[in-house]
Specification:
267 residues, mainly alpha, 0% strand, 16 helices
């Protein structure tokens, strides 16, 4: 049989070996003249796409050693590296990046955001190791640190800060990661940000809200107490003249209101 013949689904034997993780069979096929860049007739995927998608590092090594293009696009403009990142195959990502598997800044940012939102610490660490910008601005107008703080991912927040992320970076509304941590009630992240120099007095440009306003509005008492202990002023009004105590009372958060009163907060 011809080594590069395709079945009814448009796949060659090398595609099948790559998909199933059969490194020994892939090696034999390549020695017999299999085209390392053979493409599926429908998807345009190469064997390297198949192996990367499934996380078969041994097959990826065999294919790369035989000249497979780590930057090849399939019909949906996806590379093998994109697939490895999507499915969190860390070993394969490392192999592809070492073989000059490059992504655009936009692609790196997209993958970083996805990993942060999913809490994938290992992938965030790997992308940072490979040069991802910890201060990249996201399409939504924030920074990666805002995303990590809002989701409450302390370990990822630590990674971003260690890589040089600006603890007081402003999003498009003028809010800081501290605002997001307070909004989400993530006291452990909030404490970390404060320990790294986050300013609890920053007011959002659009609303004039402080992190205290967010914590009070949502009844985040643990976050509220951390901010108050850090010196946040409980009597700063937002642009609508509303102080944190009023925000807490309006939303029925009595415990938060009592805490604010202990720090001499006024309505």
């Amino acid at each position: 049989a011809q080594v590069n013949a395709k079945d009814a689904a448009g796949s060659a034997a090398l595609d099948e070996a790559a998909w199933k993780g059969q490194a020994a069979i892939a090696t034999v096929l390549l020695k017999r003249g299999a085209d390392v860049m053979v493409r599926n007739k429908d998807t345009g995927a190469t064997p390297l796409h198949e192996a990367a998608t499934k996380g078969h590092a041994d097959v990826v090594r065999v294919l790369l050693a035989s000249g497979a293009d780590a930057n090849a696009y399939d019909n949906s403009s996806t590379t093998p590296l994109d697939e490895a990142l999507r499915y969190r195959h860390r070993a394969v990502v490392g192999l592809l990046m070492e073989k000059s598997g490059k992504m655009s800044r936009a692609a790196v940012l997209r993958q970083m955001q996805d990993a942060i939102m999913r809490g994938q610490i290992d992938m965030v660490a790997l992308l940072l190791e490979k040069g991802a910008n910890p201060n990249a601005r996201t399409p939504g107008g924030g920074m990666l640190l805002h995303d990590a703080a809002l989701k409450g991912h302390k370990e990822i927040t630590e990674l971003l800060l260690a890589a040089g992320a600006d603890v007081n970076a402003l999003n498009s509304a003028g809010g800081t990661p501290l605002h997001d941590a307070a909004l989400g009630g993530h006291a452990n992240v909030l404490a970390l940000l404060l320990s790294k120099g986050a300013n609890p007095a920053v007011t959002e440009r659009e609303t004039g809200a402080t992190p205290l306003h967010h914590a009070a509005s949502w009844g985040r008492t643990e976050a509220l107490e951390l901010l108050l202990k850090a010196g946040a002023d409980p009597n700063v009004p937002n642009k609508f003249g509303t102080r944190p105590l009023k925000s807490a009372l309006t939303n029925g958060h009595i415990q938060a209101a009592e805490l604010l009163r202990r720090y001499k907060a006024r309505e």
